[in-house]
Design brief:
Length: 421
Amino acid sequence: MEMIHTLDGLEILDSRGRPTVRATCRLTSGAVGIASVPSGASTGKAEALELRDRDPSRYRGLGCRKAVGHIRGEIAHALVGVEIEDQSALDQALIALDGTPNKARLGANALLAVSLAFARAQAIEAGIPLYQHFAAIHTPGGLAHKLPRPTVNLFSGGKHAGGQVPIQDVLVVPVAAQTVDEALAMTYAVYQAAAELCLDKYRMRALTADEGGLAPPFPDAEAMLGDGVAAIERAGYTPGRDVALALDVASSHFYADGRYHLGGEPLDSAGMIHHLLGWLERYPIVSLEDGLAEEDWANWPKLREAVAGRALVLGDDFLCTNPGRIRRAIDVGAANALLLKVNQIGTLSEAADACRLAQAAGWHVTVSARSGETEDDWLADLAVGWGSGHLKVGSITQSERLAKYNRLLEIEAESGLKMKG
Ligand code: 2PG
Ligand code: MG
């Protein structure tokens, strides 16, 4: 049994300078957990609601004083001094207190900050690393058993880079790396080669997008992919063997009236699947995220079948870390990998449900940051504790990204855990 002694909230700023929420949870034992929540820009429609003040005179309406007020007020009132059995009991209490299906009343940002701060306080109280505490939340008595492989943003487009090209991210996956340390060194080499390539080809110094990805004026998605391959070669690696690509197509954001507006003639779903298969033929892509739009349910199973084993069919906006959507996708065979973002659902326990559901179906899980991040590093612990195959954090620049990579290096050094194939 646990008891919260004090609960506090603070409005802080994320990596885009927009407000977000931090919570501080002090247990009666004296252990203190502090956690900050991230925020997306290319959000899925089924995400839990991020509560914003909507006061246009302050941060263009994006203030989080209401969410923070709920932590200090209603949530603290309900939880302080009450016996709480575990994370699940805490999260159930938060969900019941909010009382809406999408956490619209108190805000998923307020709820998640409390959920995470409580978890961190419990880990500190138990004197165990946060990743081991997350492992026990995932499976009672469970222990972390492997490290995730980083998938790192190289080029940005879409909503993260002003829409100069419709697709959102080309990422590098250092598939030949045996350790996190090696994976990051390889990634750095490719990123620097890509920056030189941008200078040569686009006469552009390394101007970066929201997640630190390079964002030159690509004429089209093919150029973005081709330049990804060229950067891998320029760094001295063999594309596909040493370093592969992953793609976040984020296609919901260029889908309108049943057509995909990729540039050129708009494509129907069959045309889009055909187009994606062409990319899989030509480029060493190992993971295909949101290849189809979030509402294009009828065609996701066709995409999964067509891709069959060549790359992961990964759902982000499509699944929104939502157990109900994941169950449906498993039933109809719509994907084989989950992009897990805890703030899409709003509590740690529900995200753990989503993760277990996907893993039990034999799916791969990629734990992901948001485009608006903080310097908090809990995500690295989460990816390790929940046995995810990949960790997607953004590029290998900017401290809000590097906080997670540095934590992963720390975990690798202290735990002796290995990255799996
Ligand atoms: C995504 C994420 C991270 P955002 O689409 O996968 O890259 O973006 O946080 O803006 O939803
Ligand atoms: Mg995505």
